[in-house]
Structures
1.
Amino acid sequence: MKKGLFVLASLLIMSSHVCGLLNIEGNTVWFNDIGQDPGNYYGAASVVGDSILFNPTNFAAGTGEAQMYLNKQVWFTIDAKAGRDIDSLEIEEYGDWTLQGVGTAATFVEVSAIGNLRIEQVEGVDLANPITVQGTMLFKQGPSVWTDGRYELPTDGPGSSPWEGELKFDIDQILLDNSVVGKATRVYFTMDNILTAITEDGTIAQIEKKDIGGFVVTVPEPATLVLLGLGGLLLRRKK
């Protein structure tokens, strides 16, 4: 009987990692209670260092439909390991769009993303009133052209192009703005991603998140640790 229970437990653990659910360990944090809306649009989750990565495989709007609107959410909790904290979050998304045919600005594609951050714990102590903030992602096309995430015929097409989105949360500054002393040790994060594709007769509009890079959330190492490391290196060189 014990052997059977052990096998069942092993299968459950394996299943949780394959599906990218539950808890995954990073270098200085844990990504816990990972979930997403039905359909697995974000794909399975994996962790490299202190970044959680999703690789979408079917997160697209367009492909022949006159109007398509896709809104999906992903969520997880980030817990700092002992002696660590969460200074900031950096969110990146990647994809591409296609506009083909002869049409007007009524044929367009659009990507938008809204991140919601809730600071739940500071210095290992739960906040009586968690702090919630919202951020809207900005998008860029090419190395330096920032856009609102909307691309139209004939201004932006016909043609295809990659897009990249960026959003950052300065958690230390958020705590300071709310007169909270200390460092965040637990935050809850959700992201709503919306893809829209609208076409006219004789046109094609498609936009998607790509399976390489897709959606990445990073917990950067505190800058103070880097500076201390450099300081130590300088001291050793002086000796």
Note: Helices lie at 2-18, 171-177, 223-238.
2.
Amino acid sequence: MRHRKRLLFSLALIAVFLLSAILAPVLAPHDPELTNLRQARKPPSVEFPLGTDELGRDLLSRILYGGRVTLVVAVLALAISSLIGIILGVIAGYAGGGWDNLLMRLVDVQLAFPGIVLAIAVIAIVGPGVPGLMISLAIFPIPAFARLSRALTLMVMGLDYVEAAQSIGVGRTRLAVRHILPNIVGPLLVQISLTLPTIILIGSSLGFLGLGVQPPTPEWGAMLSRGRDYVTTTPHMSIFPGLAVTLVVLGFTLLGDALRDMLDPRLCKVEI
């Protein structure tokens, strides 16, 4: 791993944001929700390293606490969607027949809707806020995980060691858990690491539209939305939240790319 520059860079970038989110109460110089109109739209300074917003709130503190909301919601939504999608895909590929057709047709119906449109529809039903945001972000990645895990299951089912296990009477549940799932986990890990940036982007987009986490809770997308009204006069209100989203997405994208190179023997090479 120490010879792979992209992997090390992505891990360092992700670690910076994870640690800053975890240590936000220690690192934040001010209360992220404390307003002071006398300090409104101040440029970066010693007292406010990233400046203030239109209500005089410290941007650095809000970005640190906003990372908590953005990352926690994205990770929980990814965990839910990947678990459901992988289970459905393995069942479809392993059971075959009618179950396969039924589950895949349901997946195809969901694939007919773009992710952002489906997320907005779910929030319209559930309502804005953290629960609605998490549910909407957990639904749209399910088809990708289901189809990938189904394809991998069908591929593994035809291999010799699976047929050998079936010939000696290994039960269906044990066969799926011990012989199929461990041998499809590599591509699934890559898919998980590449899906997380998409979830973060869509979550920030929903926050930008006012459909995500509601004020006064800090969230990067909502901060971008408020900063657009002052982009010509106080651009730091948009630059720093946008930079946070960009760097986090870049980190997880590079991580997924590096994991793909590591876990695929055909692409495995050492970067010098």
Note: The chain has one domain: 5-18+59-263.
